[in-house]
Amino acid sequence: MARAIWKGIITFGMVSMPVKLYSATSSKNVSLHLVHNKCDSRIKEQRFCPTCEEVVDYADLVRGYEYSKSEFVEVTNEDFEQLPLATKHTVEISDFVKLEEIDPIYYDKAYHVEPDPAAKKPFALFMKAVKDKDVLAVGKVALRSKERLCVLRPVEGLLVLNTLLYPDEISVDMQTPLPKVSVSDKELDMAEKLIDMMTGPFEPEKYHDEYREALLKLIEAKVEGKQIKPVSEKGKKGEVIDLFDALKASMEKYEGQGKAKATSKKADSDNSEGEEEESKPKAKTAAAKKKAATREKATSAARTSSAGKVGTTKKKRTTAAASKKQKAS
To answer: How far apart (Å, rounded) are the C-alpha atoms in residues 11 and 190?
Structure first.
């Protein structure tokens, strides 16, 4: 299992839950290294001190804050531990808010929370209450030399912790008004209709990193010594087209896609109905065979029973005759 990046307690009122924090996401970037173009050897990066004019080992490095030009004060791990912050080992829930109240620009990184075995009941209670009230729990946590704002939210059976950016970390003006341009009602109506045509449920599995796939194919081809065929980009750079014409062409495109999807669904439905129709005669034949077998079994049983009765009757008659003969003698 992955290594926990944080261990501590989540407090909810007077309820405490020992938990561990794990990274919920991972980057799938293609890793490229720096190599020397002369010999194709990988470059070795070294930490060099210009004052001592020597390469410095990692063990001889410390962290420092530059409080003045070329003046540093050293900050050690012990200094971090001595910081008077409760959030070093505790996530204290301070507020509950609705999901729509937090703009997505504030979201930073996602983690998932695992409870200590002894804390499963309060953990499950907390998740159920938050889910039933349809809210997010707001708190703060100290992670990687920084106290971070965070929200906790249940996602199916997981409790996810999202770190948030502080307002002073947002570098754009969130109150910027819309550009003052003239938009006709017809253009707006077509744009809204196009949005309606393109609106649907979010299906993350249908999206994938085409850039990474193309890069991996390029690398594989170069390893095998194949020639790479350049792909022409769609459209012309800097091309200006009429907005109305672009909206109209877009609607026609998605209308065509919608008809194609409908045709495909109908074909699938017809195939399914055809398979059902084909299976019906088979089902009827099987039922008829089963019925015939049952009837034959019943007939056989009746014959056996009848034969038994005849044998019993004959036996009775023979016994009666023998009795009469004995009396007569």
So the answer is: 51
